[in-house]
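Quick review question:
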C-alpha cells in the first residue's frame, strides 16, 4: 500500500508541473529571487538577497511578515545566542536598541521587566552581545519591515500560492509560480520559506510528513512513542466517568494504532501563541467564543480536579513580555493538526478556526467554569487580549503555530545521529547551528485499560550545538535545481524537533538567500554551488558555522 501511494503521489506531482511554454499570463512579473513565505526565515532570505543587489520579491499569504516571530512566539527559543551571527544577530540587536529608549516603556521600566523574565526566556537579553530576544509582536514586525525596505525588497501581501493551478517548470528548473490573484511570478531562483512547504510539494520535490519509523534511518526516538516514558494523566477518559458506553472525551483515542517505533502520519500538536496583558488600560476582556464547546475542556477540568493546587501557569504557560504582555503557550489542540500539512487553503482555514475557537474557549473556561479552583479563575480573569497587538485581527495572532508541516527529502537528510547529545555524527557543509533540545509536543492521547489517559509522542531531550548541512536545504538535483528550502528542510521527524526553532530558521533563511545569489552570479544550480564559495560568503557576513565542542 505504501509503494502504491508513492506511485500515485509521483504521478500527481507530474500533473502539477507543465512545460515552460504551456502557460502565459497577463500578470507576469520577473525577479532574480522569489521568496515564498512570510516567515522570519523568508524575511532573512529576502533581505540577504536584496543586500546582494538582486531584484527580490517576498510573497506573503496574509497582510504581515515575520510568521511566528511576530505572531505570538516572542519568548524566543534562544538557548545559544552566541551561535547566531549575520542578519539573525542584527535583528535581535535592533530589538535590543529599540528597548533602550525609555519612551517605549509605557507601563513598566526596562529593569523591572528584565528581572521578571530571567527564568522564563533564557534571561531575555545579552548585554555583551547587545541582543534581546523578548519583545512585543508589533515591534518585531516593525523591525523586519524596516530591514526589508532598506534592502529594496518588494512585498506582495495576501497572495498565497494557487493550489489549483500548475507550476511552470523547464526540466528540473522552476520558471513560474501562480498566485491566487492570477499573477505568474517568474524568477531565477525560488526559496520556499513557508511553514507548510506548498511550493516544494507543487514543484514535484519529494517530501514526507508525520513520523518515520525508527528503522528508516536507524533511529531510536522516531515513530509512535507510547511506551517510551510518556506521561500518564489520572483522568477518566470517558464522557461519563467510569462508563465506556458514554464514549471517549474529545481528543482521546480508543486504542493505540501501531507499535512503538512504527511510522504514522500524525504530527505534534499545533496551537496559537496569544499575547495577553494584565494592564487594565490595554486589556480586552475575555469573551466567550460563539463556537464554545464545554466538552473540549473536560479533560483539563478533570486534570485540575486531580491536582487542585496547580497554578494557572502550569495549565498554560504565561511568559512575560515587555509592557506587561505575555507569550502564552501550551494551548495545544491535541489531534487537531494531522490533516494540516496536506490540506488546501480552505481546509487549513477550517483547522485554523478550530484552533482559534479552542484557544479562546480555553481562556473563557479557565476564567469562568465554576468547577475550577477559585485561584485559577481569579488569576485568569486578570488577563485579556492586548488591544495594541494584532489590531486588524481582533487582537488575535495571524499565524497558527505549525510546529511541523511537510519535510523535504533532499540531497542530505538530517537525522537523530546528527543532532543527539552523545555519539553524534556531525553533518558536513555547515551553514549554521542548532542547539535547542529535541522538543516534540504531545501527538496523541490514548485511553488506558485502567481508565486513565496516556500520551503519545512527547520528546524533550537536551542536546549540544550541532551543525546543519547546506545540502539539507536543497532538493534532489534530479527533481529541482533552483529551489532552496530553509524551513521545511530535509530532516527526519526526530531531527526536526530541535531544528524547528525560529532562531535556526532565520539563520538558514540568510544562508538560503546567500546561496540563491551566488548561484545566480555564477550560473550554478543550487546543488552545483561550491560549498567553499558559500562558506566564504557566510563567514564574510558574520555567520557562525563552526564552534568548539
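Suggested answer, residue by residue:
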Amino acid at each position: 500500500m505504501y509503494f502504491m501511494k508513492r506511485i500515485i503521489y509521483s504521478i500527481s506531482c507530474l500533473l502539477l508541473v507543465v512545460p515552460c511554454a504551456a502557460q502565459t499570463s497577463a500578470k507576469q512579473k520577473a525577479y532574480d529571487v522569489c521568496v515564498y513565505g512570510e516567515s522570519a526565515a523568508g524575511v532573512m532570505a529576502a533581505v540577504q538577497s536584496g543586500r546582494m543587489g538582486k531584484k527580490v520579491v517576498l510573497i506573503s499569504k496574509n497582510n504581515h511578515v515575520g510568521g511566528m516571530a511576530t505572531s505570538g512566539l516572542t519568548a524566543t527559543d534562544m538557548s545559544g545566542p552566541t551561535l547566531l551571527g549575520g542578519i539573525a544577530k542584527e535583528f535581535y540587536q535592533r530589538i535590543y536598541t529599540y528597548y533602550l529608549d525609555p519612551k517605549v516603556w509605557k507601563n513598566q521600566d526596562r529593569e523591572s521587566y528584565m528581572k521578571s523574565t530571567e527564568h522564563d526566556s533564557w534571561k531575555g537579553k545579552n548585554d555583551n552581545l547587545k541582543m534581546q530576544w523578548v519583545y512585543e509582536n508589533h515591534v518585531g514586525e516593525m523591525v523586519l519591515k524596516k530591514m526589508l525596505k532598506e534592502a529594496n525588497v518588494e512585498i506582495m501581501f495576501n497572495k498565497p500560492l494557487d493550489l489549483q493551478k500548475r507550476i511552470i517548470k523547464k526540466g528540473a528548473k522552476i520558471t513560474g509560480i501562480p498566485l491566487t490573484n492570477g499573477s505568474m511570478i517568474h524568477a531565477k531562483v525560488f526559496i520556499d520559506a513557508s511553514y507548510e512547504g506548498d511550493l516544494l510539494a507543487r514543484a514535484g520535490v519529494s517530501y514526507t510528513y508525520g513520523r518515520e519509523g525508527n528503522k528508516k534511518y536507524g533511529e531510536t526516538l522516531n515513530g509512535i512513542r507510547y511506551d517510551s516514558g510518556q506521561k500518564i494523566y489520572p483522568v477518566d477518559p470517558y464522557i461519563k466517568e467510569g462508563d465506556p458506553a458514554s464514549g471517549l472525551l474529545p481528543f482521546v483515542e480508543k486504542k493505540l494504532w501501531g507499535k512503538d517505533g512504527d511510522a504514522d502520519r500524525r504530527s505534534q500538536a499545533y496551537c496559537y501563541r496569544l499575547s495577553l496583558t494584565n494592564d487594565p488600560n490595554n486589556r480586552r476582556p475575555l469573551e466567550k467564543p460563539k463556537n464554545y464547546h464545554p466538552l473540549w475542556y473536560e479533560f483539563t477540568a478533570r486534570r485540575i480536579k486531580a491536582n487542585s493546587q496547580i497554578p494557572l501557569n502550569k495549565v498554560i504557560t504565561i511568559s512575560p513580555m515587555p509592557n506587561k504582555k505575555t507569550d502564552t503557550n501550551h494551548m495545544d489542540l491535541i489531534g487537531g493538526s494531522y490533516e494540516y500539512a496536506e490540506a488546501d487553503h480552505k481546509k487549513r482555514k477550517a483547522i485554523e478556526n478550530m484552533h482559534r475557537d479552542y484557544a479562546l474557549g480555553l481562556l473563557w473556561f479557565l476564567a469562568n467554569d465554576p468547577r475550577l479552583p477559585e485561584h485559577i479563575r481569579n488569576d485568569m480573569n486578570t488577563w485579556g487580549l492586548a488591544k495594541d497587538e494584532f489590531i486588524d485581527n481582533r487582537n488575535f495572532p495571524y499565524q497558527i503555530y505549525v510546529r511541523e508541516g511537510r519535510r523535504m527529502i533532499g540531497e542530505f537528510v538530517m537525522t537523530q545521529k546528527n543532532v543527539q547529545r552523545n555519539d553524534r555524527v556531525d553533518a558536513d557543509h555547515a551553514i549554521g547551528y542548532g542547539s535547542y533540545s529535541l522538543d516534540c509536543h504531545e501527538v496523541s492521547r490514548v485511553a488506558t485499560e485502567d481508565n486513565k489517559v496516556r500520551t503519545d509522542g512527547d520528546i524533550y531531550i537536551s542536546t549540544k550545538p550541532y551543525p546543519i548541512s547546506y545540502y539539507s536545504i536543497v532538493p534532489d538535483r534530479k527533481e529541482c535545481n533552483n529551489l532552496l528550502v530553509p524551513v521545511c528542510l530535509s530532516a527526519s521527524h526526530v531531527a526536526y524537533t530541535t531544528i524547528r526553532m525560529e532562531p535556526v530558521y532565520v539563520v538558514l533563511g540568510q544562508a538560503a538567500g546567500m546561496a540563491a545569489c551566488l548561484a545566480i552570479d555564477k550560473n550554478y544550480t543550487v546543488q552545483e554551488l561550491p560549498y567553499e564559495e558559500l562558506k566564504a560568503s557566510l563567514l564574510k557576513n558574520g555567520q557562525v558555522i563552526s564552534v568548539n565542542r
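Why it works: Confidence is low (pLDDT under 50) at residues 1-26. Residues 502 and 525 are 27 Å apart (CA to CA).
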